[in-house]
């Protein structure tokens, strides 16, 4: 699936071929790409946005957008998936953020534009994020997923990790080790 990898995080870029044969690039989100992230959000259905943010949203405020794209490159990291075209359109966003009270555990989240869902993009993002999070001392991922988001739950279930889960008020909380020997 991978055809190119550069190992330093500041220059990280990986080409992936998804299920339909499309070649995409996974790389770090750049601070100047606020407009491209807004464009991604505008192409997503209300359902996809509800799944990502765990509640219905009509728009993202500037402060919410700033929080979404702000990262430090180690404990809070945002990746984008782009198509190779003139403007490098962002078609997906994946993030992890280490928990303050448990810094070896990071919460993960994903947003894939509707037209590109069910092609393996979420799986490719999870694999990439796992690899790079390990390099920064993250040993476990956690995620809160709306219980009716069967597509995202399936991504996690089929990733091959030992999942523990609990459901409360329509939200499934998942946690799983991303390193060997972690339980």
Short description:
The protein has helices spanning about 35-45, 45-55, 60-70, 120-135, 150-155; strands at about 1-5, 15, 25-30, 75-85, 90-100, 105-110, 140-145, 165-170, 170-175. With about 180 residues, it is an alpha+beta fold. It has a nine-stranded mixed β-sheet with strand order 1-2-3-4-5-6-7-9-8, with helices on both faces.
CATH topology: Aminopeptidase
Radius of gyration: 15 Å
Query: Can you identify the CATH class?
Result: Alpha Beta
Can you name the CATH architecture?
3-Layer(aba) Sandwich
Give the strand order of the largest sheet, numbering strands 1, 2, ... along the chain. Answer: 1-2-3-4-5-6-7-9-8
- What is the general shape? globular
> What's the average pLDDT?
88
Reported for the largest beta sheet, the result is: 9 strands, mixed
**Oligomeric state, counting identical vs distinct chains:** single chain
What is the element string, with H for helices and E for strands?
EEEHHHEEEHEHEE
Can you count the helices?
5
Report on the structure:
A nine-stranded mixed beta sheet has the order 1-2-3-4-5-6-7-9-8, sandwiched between helices. The protein contains five helices and nine strands; from the N terminus they run βββαααβββαβαββ. The longest helix has 14 residues, at 121-134. By secondary structure, the protein is α+β, with helices and mostly antiparallel strands. Mean pLDDT is 88; it is low at 1-8. It has helices at residues 34-43, 46-53, 62-69, 121-134, 150-157; strands spanning 2-6, 13-17, 23-28, 76-83, 90-98, 105-112, 140-146, 164-168, 171-177. Helix 4 (121-134) links the parallel strand 6 (105-112) and strand 7. The chain is globular and about 45 Å long. It has one domain (2-137): Gcn5-related N-acetyltransferase (GNAT) (Aminopeptidase, 3-Layer(aba) Sandwich).
